[in-house]
């Protein structure tokens, strides 16, 4: 604990600048332009002079009453603030002690979501060099429409071998200048959510490219995983390395310690996640480790089963995969996680890649990714009626005899209104007892699909888009694509 307190006072100037005899320091995310989760007991916290006698007073513009709390022996104070219904009217929050008063302005009351993961979540609205976001110039221009409606915050790069209490995280109103560098998927999620709900939205981005799920997981969990080194010099010195690209992105725990743990007190509505490319060689572990990470975040936020919506890895060559079969298995592992915990949903991206993006790990269609994340939130978290947010999912198969020979009939969940096409369906393969896969033709009938091939007289299994790069074109009437699947359990 002493080590953590020293770290806090060394870094506290990064959270909010101190001038003169200022003593009040607000915790990460507690500042100007913040968005507080509506109709909750929102947590505000920070530090003042160490000592049990320090008293901090809080007042808000929507509640003229004052709250007082004594700081603990380490100078930490915390308030639970009853927030009203969402409003676009800017509010103020005032925190003071005996020597200083700090007023936080342009505070909105609305919906707050945390976005995390690796580079496809980190990817800014203006794109990476050589990796554009489709129509980025137009989207950046249109961001002026969301000033005063969407507030955004990026958590600074800050790996650490221990759990720390502070990190730089500054809120901004949405403008072309601030939106262009904010994560694209989070931005598109945010603007669609504020349009649908008619209230302010705050999106917090804490992500970093090439990181593994283990890097965002607490130490007490990762310490049980075989092969994870939590005592190497690289791990122990991770907080000393600058700039960001010099840090090993494969390190366990350090990104959780420095970029998630410090913001856990902040009251939010749910999580967005875009990661798994860095784990593509180990799909056999991913479902369990991903689920453990989600459980740990929910437990540490202490707000129950907070919604957790995440994005399937995109079609890509994945040149670093030991075996290309592991890519399809990773998608399978990702989907499996959604069946193990409540309020978890996966966005399928099988159709969100251009045919020329075979070698583009950062596909350009981030608008659609953000919108599909928003559909999950609206349909599941907010219970909005009429929203299609679930994807057609394979349920069962049967082999049937026809005048042309045997074919396979597949039944799907979440395809009650049928599919988008009956001809030109791409991506299906079929095999017989020899386990040799052949390209197959497919047709639709209500919520069922028939699959056959003249080269397979005795079909035993079917696969759809079960490759590292296979663009499927089969969707539900809603426009949401069929999730890649296999009916077999062959080793590869």
Proportion of residues in extended strands: 25-35%
Unreliable spans are 1-22
- Tally the structural domains: 3
The CATH architecture category of the largest domain equals: 3-Layer(aba) Sandwich
Span between termini = 48 Å
Mean pLDDT: 93
Q: What Rg do the Cα atoms give?
A: 25 Å
- Count of DSSP E strands? 22
Instruction: Give me the CATH fold name of the largest domain.
Output: Rossmann fold
Estimated helix fraction: 10-25%
Biggest sheet descriptor: 11 strands, mixed
Tell me the number of helical segments per DSSP (H or I, 4 or more residues long). 11
Outline = elongated
Q: Quick one: CATH superfamily of the largest domain?
A: SGNH hydrolase
Structural class: alpha/beta
Q: Quick one: CATH class of the largest domain? A: Alpha Beta
Report a brief summary of the structure.
It contains 11 helices and 22 strands. The protein is of the alpha/beta class and 492 residues long.
What's the helix and strand layout?
Layout: H1 2-15, E1 25-26, E2 35-37, E3 41-47, E4 55-60, E5 63-70, E6 76-82, E7 87-96, E8 101-117, H2 119-122, H3 136-142, E9 150-155, E10 169-173, H4 176-179, H5 184-197, E11 201-207, H6 219-222, H7 233-236, H8 254-259, E12 270-274, H9 283-301, E13 308-311, H10 325-338, E14 344-347, H11 366-381, E15 393-402, E16 405-413, E17 428-431, E18 437-439, E19 441-445, E20 448-452, E21 461-464, E22 485-486
Parallel strand pairs: 2-8, 8-11, 8-12, 9-11, 12-13, 13-14
Antiparallel strand pairs: 1-3, 3-6, 4-5, 4-7, 7-8, 9-10, 15-16, 16-20, 17-18, 17-21, 19-20, 21-22
Helix pairs in contact: 5-11, 9-10
């Amino acid at each position: 604990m002493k080590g953590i307190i020293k770290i806090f006072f060394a870094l506290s100037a990064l959270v909010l600048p101190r001038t003169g005899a200022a003593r009040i320091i607000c915790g990460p995310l507690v500042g100007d332009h913040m968005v507080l989760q509506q109709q909750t007991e929102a947590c505000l916290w920070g530090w003042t002079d160490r000592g049990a006698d320090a008293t901090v007073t809080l007042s808000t513009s929507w509640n003229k009453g004052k709250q007082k709390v004594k700081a603990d022996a380490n100078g930490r104070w915390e308030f639970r603030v009853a927030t009203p219904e969402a409003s676009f009217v800017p509010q103020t929050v005032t925190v003071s002690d005996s020597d200083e008063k700090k007023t936080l302005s342009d505070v909105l009351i609305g919906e707050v979501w945390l976005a995390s993961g690796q580079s496809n979540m980190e990817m800014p609205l203006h794109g990476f060099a050589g990796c554009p976001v489709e129509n980025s110039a137009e989207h950046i221009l249109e961001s002026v429409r969301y000033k005063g409606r969407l507030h955004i915050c990026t958590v600074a790069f800050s790996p650490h071998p221990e759990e720390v209490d502070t990190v730089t995280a500054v809120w901004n109103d949405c403008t072309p200048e601030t939106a262009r560098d904010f994560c694209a998927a989070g931005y598109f999620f945010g603007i669609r959510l504020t349009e649908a709900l008619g209230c302010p939205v705050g999106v917090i981005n804490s992500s970093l490219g090439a990181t593994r799920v283990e890097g965002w997981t607490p130490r007490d969990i990762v310490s049980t995983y075989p092969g994870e080194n939590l005592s190497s010099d690289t791990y122990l010195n991770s907080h000393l390395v600058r700039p960001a690209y010099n840090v090993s992105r494969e390190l366990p725990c350090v990104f959780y310690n420095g970029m998630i743990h410090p913001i856990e007190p902040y009251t939010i509505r749910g999580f967005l996640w875009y990661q798994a490319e860095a784990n593509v060689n180990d799909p056999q572990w991913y479902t369990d480790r991903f689920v453990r990470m989600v459980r740990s975040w929910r437990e540490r936020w202490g707000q129950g089963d907070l919604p957790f919506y995440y994005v399937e890895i995109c079609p890509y060559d994945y040149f670093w995969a030991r075996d290309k079969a592991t890519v399809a298995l990773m998608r399978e592992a990702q989907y499996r996680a959604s069946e193990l915990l409540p309020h978890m949903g996966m966005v399928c991206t099988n159709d969100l890649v251009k045919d020329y993006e075979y070698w583009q790990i950062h596909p350009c269609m981030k608008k659609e990714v953000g919108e599909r994340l928003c559909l999950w939130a609206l349909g599941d978290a907010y219970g909005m009626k009429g929203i299609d947010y679930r994807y057609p999912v394979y349920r069962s198969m049967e082999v049937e005899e026809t005048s042309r020979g045997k074919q396979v009939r597949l039944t799907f969940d979440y395809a009650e209104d049928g599919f988008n096409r009956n001809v030109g369906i791409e991506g299906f393969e079929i095999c017989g007892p020899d386990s040799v896969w052949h390209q197959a033709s497919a047709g639709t009938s209500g919520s069922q699909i028939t699959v056959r091939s003249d080269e397979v007289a005795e079909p035993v299994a079917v696969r759809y888009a079960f490759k590292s790069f296979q663009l499927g074109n089969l969707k539900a009437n809603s426009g949401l694509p069929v999730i890649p699947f296999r009916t077999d359990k062959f080793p590869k």
